[in-house]
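Appendix B, record 7
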Amino acid sequence: MEDDDVLPEERLSGRTSEAQAARVERIIRAAIELAGQGGYEAVQMREVARIAQVALATLYRYYPSKNQLLLAAVRYEIAKLDQDVTTRRPRGATPEVRAGEVFARAFQAMRNDPGYAHAALSVRQSPVAFGAHGKSRPRGDHDTTFVRIAAAAAWGSDHEVTAEQDLALQMVESLWIGCTIDWLNGRLTAEAADQRIRFAARKLLT
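Structure tokens (predicted):
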């Protein structure tokens, strides 16, 4: 049978790169769906495999732990933010306003899916077990990617970010994380969190 004669569902269940990419996306989307229903604890590997329609062994072959799966989900959502910023460029008059808009959009995405926000920040920000220094959870490229998106929005993709600008963006990201956690915990309203994030970008990047 020629490739053109293969049914779409057969292509997505085989061993081709297309099929593997489709499985990975189904797995990640299943994890995000479960997170949306109940945060970090709701993401159970067996249930992810069931929703994604893959064998549990297959799931563990791609992602040996729940934390690694959720880090992949974070990268997936960051890629969506990158695409959104590319498609709808922030229109602020200054670099600091444009960078603040990127962080504000990321916070809005968290507002839209609090369960995912809880799962993402639980795996990414909570400290490791006390005494487990040097055995931290696996890390993705979340930090550098987030900062890169904000930098490109602020100054353009061809701009060479200085060490000071990079540090300032990382500081805004740290405040973004703190504001998002405070919002999740009910210590900060969404409006106040948005205001603080934009204010920090204006002050730190000016």
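Remarks on this record: Residues 179 and 196 are 8 Å apart (CA to CA). The chain is about 70% helix and 0% strand.
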